């Protein structure tokens, strides 16, 4: 596709349920990022993948959050036992490269708005 | 700890007036600074980065290491500049951004 695609665009779930959020990066982009944006705040870093591996997961708030990128392309952010405080827009971004040799532009998806009721 | 501060949540100016969106940062090393913009119902996109020293859509931003600031400026605002603007910092290894809380720019006709 032309840009980073995130599905679903909206997700409403009940407290305690499990959710999966999907990100399709731009083809050929090796670096993939997940961010979380709460109301009135800027995006907050969650995790960064370089290829298939999570190079930096320091932003994941707790062990209920997990992300995978098994083939180095599509990524899934998984949230277990959702809480109302998890309600936010989850943004995915990709870039051609990452790390010291990178510094290329990161392209963002439209985000998934997660509402936990 | 890294921090990006955008003191203004909302900035309203009239068309043709100068505009300055403030951004201050704290970081122990030499970061790279960016401005991202989000127009209504569109995705977040890069506006400019300090290393490129470009003027994009009439906007410029100069990194002032002494004042740890990276303010975004435009001499004559246009209505189409109305959007959310986020200042962001990236550490030297460039694997994440730290974003400010954003400033909503409203350019009135």
Describe the structure.
- The complex is a heterodimer of chains A (117) and B (109).
- With 117 residues, chain A is mainly beta.
- Chain A has a single domain, classed as Sandwich (Immunoglobulin-like), CATH 2.60.40.
- Chain A is 0% helix and 47% strand.
- Chain A contains no helices and 11 strands.
- In chain A, strands 2, 4, 5, 6, 9, 10 and 11 form a 7-stranded mixed sheet that branches.
- The radius of gyration of chain A is 13 Å and the shape is globular.
- The termini of chain A are far apart.
- Chain B has a single domain, classed as Immunoglobulins (Immunoglobulin-like).
- With 109 residues, chain B is mainly beta.
- Chain B is built from no helices and 11 strands.
- In chain B, the strands form 3 sheets. In chain B, strands 2, 5, 6, 9, 10 and 11 form a 6-stranded mixed sheet that branches.
- Chain B is globular, with a radius of gyration of 13 Å.
- Chain B is 0% helix and 43% strand.
- The model of chain B has no long low-confidence stretch (mean pLDDT 92).
- The interface between A and B is medium-sized, with 30 and 23 residues.
In terms of topology, how is this protein built?
The complex is a heterodimer of chains A (117) and B (109).
Chain A: E1 5-7, E2 10-13, E3 19-24, E4 31-37, E5 44-50, E6 53-56, E7 65-68, E8 75-79, E9 88-95, E10 107-108, E11 112-116
Parallel strand pairs in A: 2-11
Antiparallel strand pairs in A: 1-3, 3-8, 4-5, 4-9, 5-6, 7-8, 9-10, 9-11
Chain B: E1 3-5, E2 10-14, E3 19-21, E4 24-26, E5 32-38, E6 45-49, E7 60-61, E8 72-74, E9 83-90, E10 98-99, E11 103-108
Parallel strand pairs in B: 2-11
Antiparallel strand pairs in B: 1-4, 3-8, 5-6, 5-9, 7-8, 9-10, 9-11
Task: Briefly characterize the structure.
With 117 residues, chain A is mostly beta strands. Helix content of chain A is 0%, strand content 47%.
What kind of sheet is the major sheet of chain B? Answer: 6 strands, mixed
Could you tell me the number of beta strands of chain B? 11
Provide mean pLDDT of chain A, rounded: 92
Q: Quaternary state, please? A: heterodimer
Low-pLDDT sequence parts of chain A: none
Count of helical stretches of chain B: 0
CATH structural class of chain A: Mainly Beta
Strand content of chain A: over 45%
SSE order of chain B: EEEEEEEEEEE
Helix content of chain B: under 10%
Q: In one word, what is the shape of chain A?
A: globular
Number of domains of chain B: 1
- Distance, first to last CA of chain B: 41 Å
CATH-derived architecture of chain A = Sandwich
The number of E-state strands of chain A comes to 11
């Amino acid at each position: 596709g032309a840009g980073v695609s995130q599905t679903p665009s909206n997700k409403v779930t009940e407290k305690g349920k499990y959710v999966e959020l999907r990100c399709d990066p731009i083809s050929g982009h090796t670096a993939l990022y997940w961010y979380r944006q709460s109301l009135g705040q800027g995006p907050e870093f969650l995790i960064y993948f370089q290829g298939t591996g999570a190079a930096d997961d320091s932003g994941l708030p707790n062990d209920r959050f997990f992300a995978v990128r098994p083939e180095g392309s599509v990524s899934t952010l998984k949230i277990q036992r959702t809480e109302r405080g998890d309600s936010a827009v989850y943004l995915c971004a990709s870039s051609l490269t990452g790390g010291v040799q990178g510094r290329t532009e990161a392209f963002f998806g439209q985000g998934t708005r997660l509402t936990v009721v | 700890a890294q921090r990006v501060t955008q003191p203004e949540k909302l900035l309203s100016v009239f068309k043709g007036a100068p505009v300055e969106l403030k951004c201050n940062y704290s970081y122990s090393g030499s970061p790279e600074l960016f401005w991202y913009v989000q127009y209504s119902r569109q995705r977040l996109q890069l506006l400019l980065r300090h290393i490129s020293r470009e003027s994009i859509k009439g906007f410029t931003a100069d990194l002032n290491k002494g004042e740890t600031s990276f303010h975004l400026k435009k001499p004559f605002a246009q209505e189409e500049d109305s959007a959310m603007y986020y200042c962001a910092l990236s550490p030297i290894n460039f694997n994440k951004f730290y974003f400010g809380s954003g400033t909503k720019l409203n350019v009135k006709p």
